[in-house]
Amino acid sequence: MPVSLLTAEQVRVAERSTGELLANGTLMRRASHGVAQVVVGRLAATGGCYGRTVGIVVGAGDNGGDALFAGAELARRGIRVTAVLLAPDKAHPKALLAFGSAGGRLGTELPRGLDVVIDGVVGIGGRGPLRPTAAKVFAGVAPSTVVVAVDLPSGVDADTGVVHDPAVRADITVTFGVRRRAHLLAGPQCGRIVVVDIGLPADHEGDPDVAEEYAPGEIRLQALTDADIAAAWPVPGAHDDKYTQGVVGVIAGSHRYPGAAILSTGAAVAATSGMVRYVGSAHAEVVAHRPEVVVVPELSEAGRVQAWVIGPGAGTDDAALERLRTVLATDLPVLVDADALTVLAAHPDLVIGRDAPTLLTPHAGEFARLTGEPVGADRLAAVADLAKRWGATVLLKGRITLVAQADGTVYGNDAGSSWAATAGAGDVLSGIAGSLLAAGLPPIWAGAAAARVHAHAARNAASGAPIGASDLLAALRPTIRELLAP
Ligand SMILES: NC(=O)C1=CN([C@@H]2O[C@H](COP(=O)(O)OP(=O)(O)OC[C@H]3O[C@@H](n4cnc5c(N)ncnc54)[C@H](OP(=O)(O)O)[C@@H]3O)[C@@H](O)[C@H]2O)[C@@H](O)CC1
Ligand SMILES: [K+]
């Protein structure tokens, strides 16, 4: 099931729903135990706990309380723990007492050469960047020290994932019960995320019954898992033929830029079985690479399709506008990418009010062309807003790809690496998503599934070294095979 990512307020609602467990501090003890376990696990894997050194940076709220209770547990295991209190008067009193009783020490700065630093400055109550005192403490932390963030890396906004400057960069983030939005939106800043079960009703990932109440149009952020995508991926049934699985038509490339056409159609061929049609002047090059693609130079000659992909390398002239107008006038799902987005920016009316599904796949620059302003720091709000205003599904590309539906549902995917940031990778994505649209997947699923498979293929192709889009394309089939393997 898709994993939900909640706002700070939704997390607080979930915590409050536990009543006594919140009031008597049980939730905090469970949370801090989870943090301590993660640190112990890390130390145990690298030589054991006894005599190792841990620093704790403690803020004014319960996040600092978590860190101090965790520190107490670590101190009891023979670990030398030093805490720096950023706001000594406000430090969680019970946690501070427990920390002192367990043998934890207080300092005005962190000792050098620590094995682990625990960031307990702020969690979901944090606002803005790390304040100067905290920033100074973290500036002295050696690169070899493992940084474990409690709940969130401090300086990262819980709801938008905006990484303020300065902010903590964590190797591991330990969170409680349910994921916060920032864990996806600022994934690279969080490092590995460990979700500790503290007994919230929403503790079963993907089943956040506490947060099921969404107002109409409210943003609901989720992440698809590999299992979700495998279950939805079109696989031919016993009675399928090449037409019943959905035919995708690709309008892309040109004499001058045949590569986009080759990459997009190649990806469409690899992503699903069935049939791919191609319309455009790069037809000879397309057939040379993929003889199974049925090609024609003109749109008027194209046979029937179940979805269109239009735009990669296809130009922005009057003829391009005419082709865009024609496909958007059909009642078929249409994926609009690249050059076609530039054309669309001047003619939004072609999409707004369209009844059939439309999937727009801009990168940040194309997004700015569509809306007339930069994406901005809050990418989630920006993409959800465009989807709502245009009544379309919008896939905003990036390390974290966000796919927003007009009703506020957003699927996000962290690519896990940035190897796919290479010329032509977007053309491959358009082919994958287009073929999924033709197979009947709703645009948000087609976009999110394509983004995830694309990211896995990039990782598999790269294997630690740079790649080109052709390498990504070549890795597509083995990646899908791996995904679909029982
Ligand atoms: N409730 C529970 O049972 C459970 C809660 N849990 C834990 O509690 C955390 C939430 O605790 P919280 O609500 O106390 O807020 P929290 O994140 O500690 O920070 C608030 C304080 O920080 C300050 N401050 C703000 N911005 C700042 C900045 N940029 N730089 C520096 N300081 C800044 C600001 O104080 P100010 O200095 O402005 O007076 C404010 O008072 C949650 O993330 C989880 O870890 C878990 O134990 C599970 C059970
Ligand atoms: K923190």
TrEMBL record:
InterPro entries: CARKD, Nnr, Ribokinase-like, YjeF_N_dom, YjeF_N_dom_sf. Residues 225-483 form the YjeF C-terminal domain. The keyword Lyase applies. It catalyses: (6R)-NADHX = (6S)-NADHX; (6S)-NADHX + ADP = AMP + phosphate + NADH + H(+); (6R)-NADPHX = (6S)-NADPHX; (6S)-NADPHX + ADP = AMP + phosphate + NADPH + H(+). Residues 11-206 form the YjeF N-terminal domain. K(+) binds at N63, D119, S154. It comes from the Bacteria. Keywords: ATP-binding, Isomerase, Lyase, Metal-binding, Multifunctional enzyme, NAD, NADP, Nucleotide-binding, Potassium. (6S)-NADPHX binds at residues 62-66, 123-129, 151, 260, 313, 363, 427. AMP binds at K397, G398, R399, I400, T401, G426. PROSITE patterns: YJEF_C_3, YJEF_N. GO terms for molecular function: ADP-dependent NAD(P)H-hydrate dehydratase activity; ATP binding; metal ion binding; NAD(P)HX epimerase activity. Homotetramer. This is Bifunctional NAD(P)H-hydrate repair enzyme. It comes from Gordonia desulfuricans.
